[in-house]
Amino acid sequence: MSFLRWMPPLLALFSISVTGCPGNSASNEPKPVSSQEVSVSLAGVDTSSLTPRERREWAAQVSELLSPCPDTPVSIAQCVKEQRPCKACLPAAQLLLKQVKEGRSKKEREDAFHMRFDAKKVRTLATDGSPDMGPPDAPVTIVEWADFECPFCRLMSPVLEELVKRFDGQVRLVFKFYPLSAHVHGEPAARAAVAALNQGKFWEMHHLLFENQERLEQADIERYAQRLKLDPVKFRADLVSTETKARIDKDKKQADEVGLEGTPLVFINGREVNLQLLTNPPDDLEEWVKVELELLGQTPRPAPPKPAGAQPGATDTPASASGTPAGSAAPAAGSGAAPAAGSSAAPAAGSGAARPAPSAGPAQPAQPRKP
Predict the structure, then answer these.
(1) What span, in angstroms and rounded, lies between the C-alpha atoms of 304 and 167?
(2) For residue 36, what are the β-bridge partners?
(3) Model confidence over 271-326: pLDDT tens digits?
């Protein structure tokens, strides 16, 4: 499946404030801001493009927020200046710089920082038995809960798969089921995907279901099974089996435990990606994975060369698109925060993240997903 074919509809996801299908629902405190204006210059952080006001905002924030490493209790600015051993300090300063450039509020910038670097934000996610792509021992594991009838999941899917290709051998993508009750075809589609998984054709069915999201009736699903040459008797039996329901319910229970509020729900190395704090998901997530690998002591795979004649950013931020998908409400899910348990777990790296917001024009605060 070509990634480029998905780029036009992706703008629909990036250009609206709602960034998912609504679901079923104290870290390090910054030091008080000094009344004295702060001026900061850090090696590796280019602030030349900032306005004087933006430079003041960034300088104040890197001077008041503590280093991401618990054993380095100094400000981010001091950590970078003194070249402390905390490798996350420089990426944290660069993240805050980007957030300032995008016009984010002070709170949004703090939220982005804590989401991405706060050690308390990491969860352990069970991944045993879930369909995946990429090596099982990849240093970066992306876990996604999705609903096949959710338009936002359809748009996010190729972005995540592209990360597996972009960082070949370094990223693993794990899929988990969360059919929303508001989507009448979500449950049958999830059952079809499990039935295809039982015959080794999960990703093929996954692609067909998203590509034909408007055609998910029983007859359509059986036609997709025929196209994939699945055993029809086994496929129909697995569609209605208690084992299939139990597999889906297991994923939903785990999602409820980590506080799912809507789909897609994405985690990178145990950190929830707040899509509302992303400006350009393909670029932002690629950068996130790149930094994650570096923090783990890995050398990220080099980016492939741009096609000849391609305009800068042409494959990342399309200029226009139409057809804005709307989110769908569903009954509230549990909001418990207990880590999920299992025999296999996504890596709980000490740093990792980011939810899509506009990719064109001035960044606007995204609206939270409503339960």
Answers:
(1) 10
(2) none
(3) 999 999 998 999 999 999 999 999 999 999 998 887 776 554 444 433 333 333 33
Cβ neighbour number for residue 212 with a 10 Å cutoff? 15
Neighbouring C-beta atoms of residue 344, cutoff 10 Å? 14
Which residues, other chains included, contact 150 with Cβ-Cβ below 8 Å and sequence gap of 6+? 20, 21, 180, 183, 186, 263, 264, 328
Angle at 153 between CA 152 and CA 157, to 5 degrees: 120
CA-wise closest residue to 191 among 157, 143, 225:
225
pLDDT, tens digit, 9 for 90 and up, residues 124-133: 999 999 999 9
Q: Which ranges of 240-310 does DSSP label H, i.e. alpha helix?
A: 242-257, 281-295
269: left (phi over 0), alpha (psi -120 to 50) or beta: left
CA angle 71, 76, 79 (to 5 degrees): 60
What's the CA angle centered on 200, arms 195 and 204, to 5 degrees?
80
Mean pLDDT of 75-81: 97
